[in-house]
Amino acid sequence: MNRKKINILTLQRKKEKEQPITMLTAYDYTGALLVDQAEIDMILVGDSLGMVMMGLDSTVPVTMDEMLHHCRAVARGAKYAFLVGDMPFLSYQVSPAEAVRNAGRFLKEAGMNSVKLEGGQEMVPTIEAIVQAGIPVMGHLGLTPQSISKLGGYRIQGKTAATARQLLDDALALEAAGCYAIVFEAVPAAVAAAISQRLAIPTIGIGAGAGCDGQVLVFHDILGMYDKFLPRFVKQYATLGPAIVAAFSQFREEALARQFPAAEHTYDMDESELAAFLDAVEADG
Ligand code: KIV
Fold first, then answer.
1. Known catalytic residue: 18?
2. Minimal CA–CA distance to 24: which of 228, 222, 274?
3. Which structural domain, as residue segments, surrounds residue 140?
4. Taking the model in full, what pTM does it have?
């Protein structure tokens, strides 16, 4: 099959042809290889890595260096998916100039194709500056985990007519500023669907219903490997957590019983070489 690398135009065409876009997060080389093999359109190296890879309670402490480290590994594993690097908290809020410099590092140093950042109309000057530098920007509206202190917790956004209207205004502002796509997280399905119809650019939903132009899930959630926090919108397509623990336990039991390694996992040597070696050991006393 003549498989081509996904780019911004591919994504825009999918929106126009009403073909759903798929996105998953990945954080390392092996994970990216697997996601790419499944022909997923986009890989997000999300700052969710703070929670699922680093065991933090939120995404807030994640640093640029940590993001770039994981992005490099993903870029080595994914040949076809369009790659999105998530800008961590305070890497883009201080000034547009600093945001451009940090966004550029995702492309120059870590092999990403674009960046994602959270926020609405207040982010317009920053988005414009990054896009002007030639870096594609994906927006992120609704539940924006970096602002968890301001939002008062991980709660659904846009549930009143006024806050839904605010979401629409933010989305239109992000589109006008040059975003090529917007993630909607934890938003009523009807609101996300109505906004998706008003936008010319694709929307990618997570907990935002089937009316978005695409869907995204977190690697560890879809595989059933992380149950510390399981939002309603997660569908586990596998339960690898228990399967992994079962494999580790079986290894332990077999190693304790000296059943592992078996002959087929063991290297042989020439018998005469072995005899000479054992004679030498014996001679040494
Ligand atoms: O960091 C992340 O994984 C994300 C997704 C939830 C969209 O931002």
1. no
2. 222
3. 8-238
4. 0.96
